[in-house]
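Need a sequence for this fold. Nothing fancy.
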């Protein structure tokens, strides 16, 4: 009977993932434990999941806790989706990680994966992720961690380096983009096939087919339509100039390369905007929402509709032995031959009763490997910075970030990082 722990469950994601789990017959037994440092959120999500369990009439025990160690013992799967230091996308420290670089002309679009924001998010988040691994080593050493926390590649890399826990990083960009591509070429999604490899948020559709035929000509034809091109201007420009379609959105992709955000006229040409997060974080969830309360009380049926997230499919594949295909973030053990060993790559994987099996992609086209490598070297230095507690390596990571390097001098990057270390000194005491 699977024992599932969700850390960081006190949000809408905790409910989505729990519903996904309960949509699978093989997972309708055992237990679901919901962990969040906010007791009110953890309790409310647990009450909602209990209501769904009652509605389904299944023997699943639902628990909640504010301390993960209370529920980790004997876990089979541990799903992690956390924010460290504050809200993920509002208030401090996120506000500083966007606004301080902006003063130097570094206009990040999301700042959660790469760049100055991604590096500093790693510095404050990776130590907690490693502590979760340490608890798992003690309490559930055979469990599989499914990580949804960003920066995906850097956190998974740090955990792989520091722990023996099995970790697979999960994102929804492959699912989302493949659905978008089907819409762009106006074909049924079920008739398309794809093969994707690269790194998280910068993986590439190495094959995209419709009814067994190459669909890239259809995609290039669709890109001639101004209305379609305007929906994805950065990615269609990458397609036009480099010949391949990338997995993450135009907004995200614009900050991973040096070409789109370094001058205002470029922003305007590609329909991009400044990122200006709220300075103060406010409550995200209204637990007094009438619909939510009616569902908890059993007065309104909860709609059981599976999301596009991979986690429950992986669990179901392992529990039933029925293979489940997904794209996962795993250590590069020869999977992509022209990216560094040990870095985290996003490749096709299968989950079955024997576990998770990544697929070898081989060598990427040189231009794609080069773009990936420009991000991987930043990730590598950020991970080294965490593991060694080295401020200097963190600064070097920011210096090598493609967008930051396109805008700033080396001295400006060092000054910028110094200000961020000061702003986050309460979170970065481990950095020397």
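Here you go.
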């Amino acid at each position: 009977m699977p024992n599932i722990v969700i850390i960081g469950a006190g949000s809408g994601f905790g409910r989505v993932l729990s519903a996904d789990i309960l949509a699978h017959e093989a997972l309708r037994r055992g237990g679901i434990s919901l962990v969040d440092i906010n007791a009110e959120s953890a309790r409310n999500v647990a009450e909602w999941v209990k209501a769904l369990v009652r509605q389904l009439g299944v023997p699943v025990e639902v628990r909640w806790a504010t301390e993960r160690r209370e529920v980790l013992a004997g876990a089979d799967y541990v799903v992690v989706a956390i924010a460290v230091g504050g809200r993920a996308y509002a208030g401090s420290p996120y506000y500083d990680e966007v606004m301080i670089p902006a003063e130097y002309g570094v206009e990040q679009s999301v700042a959660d994966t790469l760049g100055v924001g991604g590096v500093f998010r790693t510095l404050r988040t990776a130590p907690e992720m490693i502590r979760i691994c340490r608890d798992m080593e003690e309490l559930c050493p055979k469990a599989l961690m499914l990580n949804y926390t960003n920066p995906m590649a850097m956190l998974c890399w740090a955990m792989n380096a520091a722990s023996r826990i099995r970790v697979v990083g999960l994102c929804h960009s492959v699912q989302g983009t493949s659905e978008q591509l089907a819409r762009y070429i106006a074909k049924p999604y079920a008739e398309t096939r794809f093969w994707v490899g690269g790194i998280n948020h910068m993986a590439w559709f190495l094959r995209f087919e419709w009814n067994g035929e190459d669909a890239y000509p259809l995609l290039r034809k669709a890109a001639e339509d101004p209305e379609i091109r305007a929906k994805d201007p950065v990615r269609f420009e990458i397609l036009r100039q480099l010949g391949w379609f990338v997995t993450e959105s135009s907004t995200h992709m614009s900050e991973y390369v040096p070409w789109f955000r370094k001058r205002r006229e470029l922003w305007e040409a590609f329909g991009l905007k400044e990122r200006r997060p709220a300075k103060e974080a406010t409550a995200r969830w209204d637990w007094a929402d009438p619909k939510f309360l009616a569902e908890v009380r059993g007065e309104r049926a909860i709609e059981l509709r599976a999301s596009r997230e991979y986690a429950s499919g992986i669990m179901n594949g392992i529990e039933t032995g029925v293979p489940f295909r997904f794209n996962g973030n795993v250590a590069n053990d020869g999977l992509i031959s022209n990216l560094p060993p040990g870095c985290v790559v996003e490749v096709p994987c299968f989950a079955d009763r024997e576990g998770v099996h990544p697929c070898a992609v081989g060598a990427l086209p040189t231009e794609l490997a080069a773009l990936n490598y420009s991000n991987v070297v930043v990730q590598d230095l950020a991970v080294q910075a965490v593991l060694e507690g080295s401020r200097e390596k963190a600064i070097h990571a920011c210096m090598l970030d493609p967008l930051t390097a396109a805008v700033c001098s080396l001295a400006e990057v060092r000054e910028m990082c110094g200000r961020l270390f000061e702003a986050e000194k309460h979170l970065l005491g481990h950095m020397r």
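For context: Residues 3-90+118-171+289-323 form a domain with the LDH C-terminal domain-like fold (CATH 3.90.1820.10).
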